[in-house]
Amino acid sequence: MSKSAYREVEVDLEVRRREQSADGVVTLTLADPSGADLPEWAPGAHIDLVMTPELTRQYSLCGSTASRTEWQVGVLLDPSTRGGSQFVHDKLNEGATVRVRGPRNHFALVSSPRYQFVAGGIGITPMLPMIEAAEATGADWHLLYGGSARSSMAYADRLAQYGERVTFCARDERGDEFRTTLTSILSAPQENTLVYCCGPEGLLDAVEKGCDAWPPDSLHLERFSAKTIEEPSDALDTFEVECQRSGVTLTIPSDKTIYDVAEEAGLDVLGSCMEGVCGTCECEIVSGEGDHRDSVLTDSEKTANQTIMICVSRSRSERLVLDL
């Protein structure tokens, strides 16, 4: 399903089931209280859980794309939580209601005869529907799944059915074997193979370096937090944004984002992470050149310059025209 084919909704869903999937991980099954169908989605999609007006977090859908009445998310209780995972674990019990926005997908599964999936910890969640899709198309695939302890690795039982296609590397059982195996897997480009990786920043950095010699667009990443991106030396201090739909032109100063100024002007903009990670604030570029500082778009997508994340990105041209 293409990104443009998505039908986003904002709806109150009920926690139909809550299950303990590993130490510190709960899986929530969400459904419309009326039994209505939910929008279709594809592997790699995520939804926003709007827990309070000030607290919105993104979680990958990890159930089956075939289910039209239920969405599933797996949530790790993060010890460095900013409040989202704590709210899920403390408040979202069976029968509770939560506002949900989405689905949205910036980690789409591209058709390929072969896949190498790499997951670290709760980064396993988007891989589950990807594996289901790879199985359905008959693609050759393998998963390298690492975690601090086997007891903390969610969905291990569900993945065991795939036998040797899945390599489990729990640090408490196998030490640093995960890193050794990862280095071996990525040491040479594999023909007609795409690499999909989700997990903590250190893992993503290692996979990026490991794929340096692979063909362009072989690697697809999903980040939990923003990648550090240096400001270009020729960055503009100020620039104008023409909002084509709204008929308003905004001046963006050096100390404010496009999102900030648009919101202050009363425009209808959506945002969540404010770090360039979730893709909620994505806008279409009509003309002009974006200064892309997000951690969502791939390098080729940034070069294509078709969309921009207005919570962090700026402009390389004096005027940027957006579909806003």
Description:
The chain is of the alpha/beta class. The chain is built from 8 helices and 18 strands. The model is unreliable at 1-5 (pLDDT under 50). It folds into 3 domains: 3-104, Translation factors (Elongation Factor Tu (Ef-tu), domain 3, Beta Barrel); 114-223, Rossmann fold (3-Layer(aba) Sandwich); 239-322, Ubiquitin-like (UB roll). The strands form 4 sheets. It has a 6-stranded antiparallel sheet with strand order 4-3-6-1-2-5, covered by helices on one side. A 5-stranded parallel sheet has the order 9-8-7-10-11, with helices on both faces. Strands 13-12-18-14-16 form a 5-stranded mixed sheet. A hairpin with a 4-residue loop joins strand 12 and strand 13.
What percentage of the residues does DSSP assign to strands (E)? 25-35%
DSSP helical segment count: 8
Structural class by sheet pairing and helices: alpha/beta
What is the assigned CATH homologous superfamily of the largest domain?
Nucleotide-binding domain of ferredoxin-NADP reductase (FNR) module
Largest sheet: 6 strands, antiparallel
